[in-house]
TrEMBL record:
Molecular function per GO: transmembrane transporter activity
Domain (Major facilitator superfamily (MFS) profile): residue spans on this chain: 237-427
Keyword Transmembrane: yes
Record-given protein name: MFS transporter
InterPro entries: MFS, MFS_dom, MFS_trans_sf, Sugar_transport-like
Subcellular location: Cell membrane
Membrane-topology descriptor: Multi-pass membrane protein
An annotated GO cellular component: plasma membrane
One Pfam short name: MFS_1
PROSITE patterns noted in UniProt: MFS
Lineage: Bacteria, Bacillati, Chloroflexota, Candidatus Thermofontia, Phototrophicales
Length: 427
């Protein structure tokens, strides 16, 4: 029996690998021009001085991704093909950028409060669209990509995304500094919508084979409660995974405030904000393939613990930074932590369960942590406004240390790594 690389093993997988990486690349380009870390918070900062509302932008993005996932799990678990649902739902995470461009154009005409409300509405819509897509999308990837290469797939996908995100972020910083307000933000959001359209065209090229569906009961509330309850009741390892994810939300809470903290503390320029966002994306781009390779070979548990350690280090540096130049390092560490968070978290999530109940694992692993995702930045914003950023960042440090402890002491990899990944794919 001859060993073969995954992409030579299956023509459809090679095709899917390419088109889904390209999908992520142009999605990343769009997100670079409409970053939830810099561009959108800066736009909201022109409409309000509330740290709480500015910090809420990144929270809306994460909540929208996480909260709806369990709502679609019963439906997804009964689909012989996931692609159609993915394409229908993902439209809702793409068109709002065009709406944001129009809102930005009207920013000097409409009342600032109305512009702020519309911005929050379309931001929430975009994020919820991602969440409604997420369970079907992750299930589709889990189906078309073998377990032994998923880490590398997610890593290369993330790398391609962040390559274009970094370029988009730098260009966005230039546009924000060169064009007058509000045309600078309108241009950024408009270019983001173009990137999303190109991304959709690649995603639509995904090839998927029908699977046999063994569940014949309708996806009603009783079935959902029984199957989701069984996952939580019977899988203790999955419960430790959920706890680690909840704690990680408090550790990552500080990221939402980095830009506004740097602005208020060191009076950074929009160009500098664009550069550090580019550093964030470039670091994530280079780190993601390495993270995927390490996770495929040694398991994603240790990689997750290492990523959380990097996150804690970035928060410590943010508290102790004496000049704005420290944010080059802070955003680089954050980029590496983000690479772990995306690559290993996605890869390990689809390792739980079987084809029949995987959608429940995916949905539960994200929806259950949504309250923590919402509460953490609210606590952080309140602490920043009342006691200072150091207090908010201290909560992140404690959350990160506890998450590391859970990952190292209690959680175990769902899939054994006794064999080398390449040895498990043969032709």
């Amino acid at each position: 029996m001859q060993t073969a690389t995954p992409m030579r093993h299956d023509t459809n997988m090679r095709h899917n690998f390419i088109v889904n990486v390209m999908d992520a690349a142009f999605f990343g380009l769009g997100m670079g021009f409409a970053s939830y870390v810099t561009v959108l918070p800066l736009f909201v900062g022109t409409l309000t001085s509330s740290t709480l509302l500015i910090g809420l932008i990144a929270t809306i993005h994460e909540i929208g991704w996480q909260l709806p996932q369990i709502l679609t799990s019963a439906r997804v678990s009964r689909l012989p093909l996931y692609r159609r649902m993915v394409l229908l739902m993902t439209l809702h995470e793409r068109w709002p950028f065009l709406a944001l461009a129009i809102v930005a154009l009207l920013a000097t005409v409409l009342d600032a409060r109305l512009v702020l409300i519309l911005t929050l509405i379309f931001t929430a819509w975009q994020s919820l669209g991602g969440g409604l897509t997420a369970t079907a999308w992750q299930s589709m990837i889990g189906k078309i990509m073998p377990a032994t290469v998923r880490g590398r797939f997610f890593g290369l996908q993330s790398s391609a995304s962040n390559l274009l995100t970094s370029g988009g972020a730098v260009l966005a910083g230039i546009l924000l500094g060169v064009l007058p307000y509000p045309y600078n933000f309108a241009a950024c959001f408009g270019i983001a919508s173009v990137g999303m359209a190109i991304s959709f065209a690649f995603l639509a090229q995904t090839r998927e084979q029908k699977r046999a569906v063994t569940q014949t009961e309708p996806a009603n509330w009783q079935v959902f409660r029984r199957e989701a309850g069984a996952v939580l009741r019977d899988d203790a390892n999955f419960r430790w995974f959920i706890l680690a994810r909840i704690l990680s939300q408090f550790a990552r809470m500080a990221i939402a405030f980095y830009t506004i903290y740097a602005t208020r503390t060191f009076d950074i320029t929009p160009e500098f904000a664009g550069i550090i966002t580019g550093i964030l994306s470039l670091t994530q781009m280079f780190a993601s393939p390495v993270v995927g390779w390490l996770g495929d070979r040694f398991g994603h548990r240790l990689v997750l613990a290492g990523g959380m350690t990097l996150m804690v280090c970035s928060v410590v540096l943010a508290i102790t930074a004496t000049t704005q130049e420290w944010f080059y390092v802070i955003f680089a560490l954050t980029g590496m932590a983000n690479a772990v968070q995306w690559t290993s978290m996605l890869a390990i999530t689809v390792e739980f369960g079987t084809e029949e109940n995987r959608a429940y694992y995916i949905g539960l692993s994200n929806t259950i942590i949504a309250p923590a995702t919402l509460i953490a930045p609210l606590i952080g914003g309140w602490l920043a406004d009342t006691a200072g950023f150091a207090s908010a960042f201290s909560v992140s440090i404690v959350g990160g240390i506890l998450a590391i402890a859970v990952l190292l002491l209690f959680f175990r990899n769902p899939v054994s790594r006794k064999k080398k990944p390449d040895e498990l794919v043969t032709a």
